[in-house]
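Field: COMPLEX_INPUT
Field: COMPONENT_COUNT = two
Field: RESIDUE_TOTAL = 423
Field: MODE = joint
Values follow.
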Amino acid sequence: MNKKIILFDYDGTVTEEEILPKIARAIGLEEEIKRLTEQTIAGDIPFDHSFMVRIEMLKNIPITEVQQIVNQVSLNKHISLFIKKHYQQCGIVTGNLDVWIQTAVKTLKARCFCSIAQLSESGNLIGPKHILRKKNIVDDFHKQGCFVIAVGDGNNDAEMIESADIGIAYGGVHPPAQSAVNSAQYIIYDDKKLCSLIQQLL
Amino acid sequence: MQSNSTVVINCAGMGNRLGFGMPKALLRFGGKSILEWHLQELSWHSDVRVVVGFCAEDVIKNALKIRRDIVFVTNYQYRETGTMSSLALGAKWGAKTIISVDGDLLIPPSVLTKFCCQRSAAVIGITSTNTEEGIKVKLSQTNNIQKVMSFVKKGDMEWSGLLKVPVEFILDKNNIARGQSHIFQVIKKRLPITATKVNCFEIDTPQDYQQALLWAKDYML
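Field: COMPLEX_OUTPUT
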């Protein structure tokens, strides 16, 4: 039987709160980031462009300061336990930059697929070297002959959910985006039920 | 702990014959939708799936009023597919026993629980015929056990829309549905199956709905 891989979005799926607003609050850019997020969700701004604007807003904040804030974001107890238990079959798929997210994700033991930062010689953030496209991760696993289960909640998860063999739209922190719901075979709002469904799928 | 059975509530259809432009599961009796009645009655069951399609968002919002630990299964091809497709999607990756409940079926409290707890591995819920619509059944009785022998065009009893069967009646070993159109067309190959009488009311047409309002006063409220 093909190896089964479970890919989890991070923000709002594994985490119990959205990372970006938390960073924005900590550095006093809450209104600006909120406006940008709303425009992105509404589809007024494409995700890639929104991502670039976000990095512009945050790049002058020391990387260690952003890392500290991200490390303090609480993780869903049941989902993170599930991932740790099945880490060899799990992957975290997030558009966040590696320099911000990797320390936090390491605690889950699973592989992390994320956007890659371009750093200056002195280690400051210049911008993104590579913006992750979540669907590509699914495609790569398919090329390896894997059966892919994908879980996410946002607009930028819709492609990943649609391309997976089983796509799950999850409404943990907030209701899943309509595009994620339209692409999914399953829609779930409870963390324990999510874990038990994935267990049934394995 | 994994449940011994999976309940699949079929709510994907458009209810064209009723013509209200809404899923029949959202019809209200005694201040609650049919779906709310089902979910409240099934609060003891740990693996409840609701198949959604037409007006999925409304059905989901209604269901979440009662419980959040539901697995919503999408059937966005509801216009082109029949009840069998919805049931098969709901049954996939579920338990070894599947309990199918139609979303347009009014069932008094405790009747649904009693059906779910039937001991037989395969049971068809039957009810008295109240309209010309419906899948009629031919019955036989041996040693106090009634069985559905065949589905027929005319009769005093009909299939209620309640079904409890091993999952292999619905899906083959590759998890593929054993049919695409209507559940009874797949189940008829497995007859005879134990029958149990259930008091319930299926709503298909505007006339059914008017009768259901009166029936509900006696049995639901």
